[in-house]
Amino acid sequence: MVQDPKTAGEPRCRFCDSPLRHTLVDLGMSPLCESYVPATRLNQMEPFYPLHAYVCSECFLVQLEAYVSAEEIFTDYAYFSSYSESWVEHARRYCEHMIERFRLGPDSLVVELASNDGYLLQHFVARGIPVLGVEPAANVAQAAVQKGVPTLVRFFGETAAREMAAAGQAADLIVGNNVLAQVPALNDFVRGIRRLLRPRGVVTLEFPHLMRTIEENQFDQIYHEHFSYFSLATTDRIFRAHGLTIFDVEELPTHGGSLRVYGRHTEDDSQPVSGRVFELLQREAEAGYGSLARYADFGERVKETKRKILSFLIEAKRAGKTIAGYGAPGKGNTLLNYCGIRTDFIDYTVDRNPHKQGKFLPGTHIPIYAPERLFETRPDYLVIMPWNLKHEIMNQMAAIRQWGGRFVIFIPEVTVEP
Ligand SMILES: [Zn+2]
């Protein structure tokens, strides 16, 4: 049989293997958003990959094709969680809550997948609870070990889980914050969780909630490092397929609206399924997330958002205003590349992370400085790239108002803060 060229090489769903034929949004070609460019490489070619999000017509998993291996993305990662104060505080409250709810103590084991620099596990260590981090980026794992958080430098999946189990490790609590989206082999990862979890163990995963991403126009949450985007219904389906059951869910304000799901072995009936799970599944169904039509108009809304952002920037520049950015997060790079915003609009951005300072944003080559630069150049507008942290940043940087500086947010709508 001669293969139809239109379907040759057609991408397939990483959960259910159905062909992916429906576009959620096509953001064009974009570089890897965490690949900050040092000055010595400014004159070199930079790889760009399609940033095209599909929705699976069978399971409604929104996803990108994995053009780049997870090894390329995550083994030398510039993101150190501890640079965000609000995120560390979020982690501390989570630990207190888990210790109390699941009665964790000196005989428990807490395993965090993608444990980064130990920003979370350190709080369990402080309470005398044994922990183990699993983190593929050696540079951030080293920072965790220095905090007293034992850390395996590797990717997590079924093989890693089997080896950990063979070494006598079984988890009472498995934590995965913002890692599920970043897993190319989704089924292998969830099988690994099942294998590592004690019979009465609990897994909690946090990830941006697809319903919020779509309803609040957060297209900049889409980047190559985030392979998948989940509704509760799709996550529930994935868990069930692997012998796990979601028994509770919380809606969190983090990352513009996240879910924290609580899972257990399906056969463990010590944790009944909470009414919150049924309630949210129903809310998603009523909002249409179980049918393709709900996903169809997002792409058009994103294009209109791009036009509004560019209109604002063009008018500001025509009026002689100076514009700087605050932050250099992945989401900012998606937005800037998609909209084609370079130093013609934004002179520079600043970031508190010294690993980013002195480098340039991928694709747009906007330079990154330490925040002090703002006080030297006194820009008229400061665009907050990580809009999810806008309250924290507006507090930290309130001094820009002394020279009449104004904060600007692009998502969900272009807004100049009063
Ligand atoms: Zn699917």
What report would you give on this structure?
- This protein is α/β, with parallel strands linked by helices and 418 residues long.
- 31% of the residues lie in helices and 21% in strands.
- It contains 13 helices and 17 strands.
- The protein has helices at 70-74, 85-101, 121-126, 138-146, 158-166, 186-196, 210-215, 232-241, 275-286, 298-318, 330-339, 373-377, 390-396; strands at 22-31, 48-55, 62-63, 110-113, 131-134, 151-152, 171-177, 197-208, 228-229, 244-252, 258-265, 323-326, 349-350, 368-369, 381-384, 406-409, 415-416.
- The strands form three sheets. Strands 6-5-4-7-8-11-10 form a seven-stranded mixed beta sheet. Strands 14-13-12-15-16-17 form a six-stranded mixed beta sheet, covered by helices on one side.
- The relative contact order is 0.12.
- The model has no long low-confidence stretch (mean pLDDT 93).
List keywords for this structure.
418 residues, alpha/beta, seven-stranded mixed β-sheet, six-stranded mixed β-sheet, 17 strands, binds zinc ion
